[in-house]
């Protein structure tokens, strides 16, 4: 039943917004404080406790926001790219999507955002529900097909989604109607770090005198073999000190929905990762996947650590826009 609940909510942004509204009320009325302070939370099943601990702070203006169909390039146009909005990303991390569009535009990319895009099927694909993933993939391909031939790249800012989209050619290899179309889409998929690392910077990077720790998301480092590109982008920010985390190859415990289905073992992994982060002395943790950010924020809080969590592109955006992190952070 719990798995069915997850798969009936998470891949659907409209349903996630309904959840966001309930979460907002839970947080803003003081009910969350009461449940935690009185110990009522401990009476809930482990899976529900895990879900509650990882719930992000809700701002309704973000949860119900939208993106324009086209974001024009700010500097001389070099590329035309399409952009993935994601499911969890567009509802709970819409600021990451806005930062992604701003950074791409600042680097000379015209950004096209198909409004009919839905879930890419990543949650289903990662948990072995191949038929459901294929159905989602077909709908996703249909939503992007009109724009696909007009763009250079499909830009992705969620590592879990990216690892799935790049496998579309394999996933739909036996579908006579979609096999060729799926491969064409997969061939244009790139993580935001790949796209930006491949472009000579046009936008000025302003100093960010911070000590940050960078976490490699498994779906980026292992599934897509991307690790040098994010570090290249971080190195472009003046006065930024980047700390490597011990056992960087180790999962943080998020792993799609693993932290919700197997909360105890996921918590062990999260605690181990949080302790390694603490040894760096960093006051900001940066990663490229929403699930990792939620998992590590919860793990750090459970360890009593005050560490700000941010998506890589938010940090770049803050440097380019010359704004404070208070206006850019995911949490």
Task: Please tell me about this protein's structure.
The chain is α/β, with parallel strands linked by helices and 331 residues long. The chain has 3 domains: 2-63, no CATH class; 70-197; 211-327, Rossmann fold. 51% of the residues lie in helices and 10% in strands. It is built from 19 helices and 9 strands. The chain has helices at 2-9, 13-28, 31-37, 46-54, 60-63, 88-92, 94-106, 122-126, 130-148, 159-165, 168-171, 179-187, 192-197, 218-221, 228-235, 258-261, 263-280, 290-302, 312-321, and strands at residues 70-71, 79-83, 109-112, 153-156, 189-191, 211-214, 241-244, 284-287, 308-311. The strands form 2 sheets. A 5-stranded mixed β-sheet has the order 1-3-2-4-5, sandwiched between helices. Strands 7-6-8-9 form a 4-stranded parallel β-sheet, with helices on both faces. The longest helix has 19 residues, at 130-148. The chain starts with a helix and ends in a 10-residue tail after the last helix.
């Amino acid at each position: 039943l719990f798995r069915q609940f997850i798969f009936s909510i998470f891949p659907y942004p409209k349903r996630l917004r309904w959840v966001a509204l309930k979460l907002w009320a839970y947080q803003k009325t003081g009910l969350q404080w009461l449940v935690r302070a009185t110990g009522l939370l401990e009476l809930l099943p482990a899976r529900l406790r895990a879900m509650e601990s990882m719930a992000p702070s809700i701002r309704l203006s973000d949860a119900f926001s939208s993106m324009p169909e086209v974001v024009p390039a700010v500097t001389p146009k070099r590329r035309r790219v399409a952009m993935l909005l994601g499911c969890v990303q567009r509802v709970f991390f819409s600021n990451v999507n806005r930062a992604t569009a701003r950074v791409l535009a600042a680097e000379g990319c015209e950004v096209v955002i198909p409004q009919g895009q839905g879930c890419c099927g990543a949650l289903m694909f990662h948990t072995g529900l191949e038929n459901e993933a294929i159905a989602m993939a077909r709908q996703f391909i249909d939503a992007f097909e009109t724009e696909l031939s007009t763009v250079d790249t499909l830009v992705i800012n969620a590592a879990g989604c990216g690892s799935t989209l790049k496998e579309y050619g394999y996933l739909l290899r036996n579908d006579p109607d979609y096999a060729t179309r799926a491969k064409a889409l997969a061939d244009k998929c790139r993580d935001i770090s790949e796209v930006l690392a491949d472009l000579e910077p046009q936008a000025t990077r302003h100093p960010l005198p911070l000590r940050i720790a960078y976490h490699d998301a498994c779906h980026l480092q292992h599934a897509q073999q991307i690790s040098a590109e994010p570090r290249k982008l971080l190195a472009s920010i003046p006065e930024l000190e980047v700390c490597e985390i011990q056992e960087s190859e180790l999962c943080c415990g998020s792993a799609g929905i693993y932290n919700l289905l197997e909360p105890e073992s996921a918590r062990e992994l999260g605690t181990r990762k949080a302790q390694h982060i603490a040894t760096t002395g960093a006051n900001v943790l940066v990663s490229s996947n929403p699930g990792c950010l939620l998992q590590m924020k919860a793990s750090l809080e459970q360890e009593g650590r005050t560490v700000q969590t941010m998506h890589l592109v938010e940090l770049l955006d803050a440097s380019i826009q010359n704004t404070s992190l208070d206006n850019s952070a995911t949490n």
